[in-house]
Amino acid sequence: MNRDSLVEINFDGIVGPSHNYAGLSLGNLAATAHAGTASYPRAAALQGLAKMRHNLGLGLAQGFFVPLPRPNLGFLDRLGAEESTDAALTAAAWSASSMWTANAATVSPAPDTADGRCHLTPANLVTMPHRAQEWPDTARQLAVAFADEAHFAIHQPVPPSFGDEGAANHMRLCAGHDQPGVEVFVFGRSGGPFPARQHEQSSRAVARLHGLDPARTLFIEQNPAAIAAGAFHNDVVSVANGSVLFTHAEAFADQASAIERMREAFPALEVVEVPSAEVSLADAIRSYLFNAQLVTLPSGETALIVPTECREVPAVARYLDGLVKGNGPIRHVFPVDVRQSMANGGGPACLRLRVVADPDTVDPRFMLDEAKADRIEQVIAASWPEQIDPADIGQPALLAAVVSARARLLESLGLDILG
Questions:
Q1: Between residues 25 and 18, which one has the greater pLDDT?
Q2: What is the rounded CA–CA span in Å between residue 93 and residue 200?
């Protein structure tokens, strides 16, 4: 393996043509708040694509995953249900939630693993029925995108006895993406009225499967109060990149101990901790300040890619203004518009899976450039439904439109194999 060729690639999920607001995700405050409202799949997909173009423009490596096949009528068949008999199950079968690829898998780069390959474990997502159906198709797509077994190893999901929600609960600290790092797995316990989705045993199983060095692997508990406040994944209250940890002061169950353990394992750690007095937990979750992409620009500077909602929450806007003016490690803040995703509880970080790899080892059909972005945009503009009302879910006309739209996308990308 030539480590000099390793870079971080963000693989964003293209928002699927069945994107709708059914409020299926307990503990996701945005999703439940918008349940039953009209959605705009075309706008959602174009917003996501614009974010990818923005990151390309910053000089970042950018990939994508295609939407999973929806509606998943096989899901209903296995439950002995029909679309007309159970609205919640029907909505689950139509869910476009696979667009949040931070939940697709947990990824350990080659410099961290015993066999020197990049390891990926698809998340079982068992806590929520609309997401638990995703992993077989996700695994199939990962197997195509990362088929080079000399560089990648793809595992089966952790058994469903233990919930696993993927990279949204995983952080990596490193001197450079091509250098050995410290992998931090954040698990949850009871979150008041909401379920804790990441089980400690799942995190430990993934670390073992990936062949990680125990001396460079940490398991840290998420703050139950954060889960109860609506931080259903760690990446709603904390994100890391390189040597920088950007975290809310109430992210972890024992904040001081968590940071001390990270610093002991990775002495070069730079912590940017946002005090509750400056940004409350509620404002952090409402704005998705931490569900941001913390990235290293080609210049070597660290930047934060945040949702535009951060500029609309006064305390968060003030904090970000001070952050950029200060002398800390985060030098730039770039707002992006992903409002359709945000209304369903997914910000910029939810929409991407980080994979450290040599781009030449990835199936090129999954790598984005401007010409391919143009092609994707043309298909979305011509085929994605403009609007979906709650009453449309399950209707034959919408079913035909959704299936046809996805088929056109796959054909345009040469990915009919995933049909």
A1: 18
A2: 28
